[in-house]
From TrEMBL:
InterPro entries: IspD, IspD/TarI, IspD/TarI_cytidylyltransf_bact, Nucleotide-diphossugar_trans. Belongs to the IspD/TarI cytidylyltransferase family. IspD subfamily. It comes from Hymenobacter cavernae. CDD domains: CDP-ME_synthetase. This is 2-C-methyl-D-erythritol 4-phosphate cytidylyltransferase.
Length: 249
């Protein structure tokens, strides 16, 4: 990180010293993907979990008054607006949110979501995968609070399994105590996230922390093993079991 970019990031974060309660909370829920690994007849965010779309479960978590989000932007594939409108009618979804068209990659979808937020908007913005419907309210709150204090904070959990790296020939053991599995929400001071998303996309960007980290250190917040990302068919079964057992945590 160059001194100039550090300085710019620090300057843009000057108001982050306010108490977290004074920082408006914004959310971008990215659901612009097509769900190729799920292999279903529609994008996985529209599949049902206990009779309701995955995306409705996720939206509800962010609409919880205990979280206090002021503005929620939902990013959808451009060709799925009508599907979502039908689901809103069918499930009588009244949670206020704006709908924005996604892009070719998660990065492009987040950038489009950010572009929707007014230039004069300020506060802490959470980016959350639409396909993480089980995120506990406490994880959302703790990530917002940490970002208000530190500028950038993401949820992550320790690795439970042994892990090996691949070498040209064979493989080698990795020290799992030094690894974390990254989740969402990933929360940032809004101007910092905007600054990061003005830079060109790199193939190494797999989440928002990887986009921001050259500009600003990332604080890790304790995530939750229930906060799984629905990616392949067995995840739906696990998510339903977790929902039955824990409801909205
Ligand atoms: N162009 C994209 C790609 C992904 N996402 C969102 O980013 C989150 C995490 O992505 P992933 O699980 O990879 O979703 P898909 O891209 O839909 O799945 P796959 O990679 O299996 O096609 C999801 O909520 C997904 O909808 C997005 O908004 N825009
Ligand atoms: C953002 C994320 O959910 C953190 O684990 C993940 O990186 C998304 O990855 P994917 O490649 O889009 O599945």
């Amino acid at each position: 990180m160059s001194d100039a970019s550090t300085h710019a990031a620090t300057q843009s974060l000057s108001h982050a010293a306010q108490p977290f309660s004074a920082m408006p909370r914004l959310a971008i829920i990215v659901a612009g993907g097509s769900g190729t690994r799920m292999g279903a007849d529609r994008p996985k965010q529209f599949l049902e979990l206990l009779g309701e779309p995955v995306l409705l479960h996720t939206l509800r978590r962010f609409a919880d008054p205990a979280v206090g989000v002021q503005q929620c932007v939902l990013v959808l594939p451009a060709d799925q607006f009508e599907t979502w409108q039908q689901l809103c009618d069918q499930f009588a979804i009244t949670i206020p949110h704006a709908v924005v068209a996604g892009g070719e990659s998660r990065w492009a979808s987040v950038r489009n979501g950010l572009g929707y937020l007014a230039q004069e908007a300020q506060g802490i913005v959470a980016v959350h995968d639409g396909v993480r419907p089980l995120v506990p309210t406490s994880v959302i709150n703790n990530t917002y609070i940490a970002a208000a204090e530190h500028g950038a904070a993401i949820a992550a959990v320790p690795v439970k399994d042994s892990v090996r790296g691949l070498a040209q020939q064979g493989s080698y053991a990795l020290d799992r105590s030094r690894l974390r599995l990254v989740q969402t929400p990933q929360c940032f001071e809004l101007n910092l996230l905007r600054q990061a998303y003005r830079l060109p996309e790199l193939p190494t960007f797999t989440d928002d922390a990887s986009v921001v980290e050259d500009l600003h250190p990332i604080r890790l917040v304790e995530g939750d093993y229930r906060n799984l990302k629905i990616t392949t068919p067995e995840d739906l079964i696990i998510a339903e079991a977790l929902l039955r057992a824990f409801g909205s945590a």
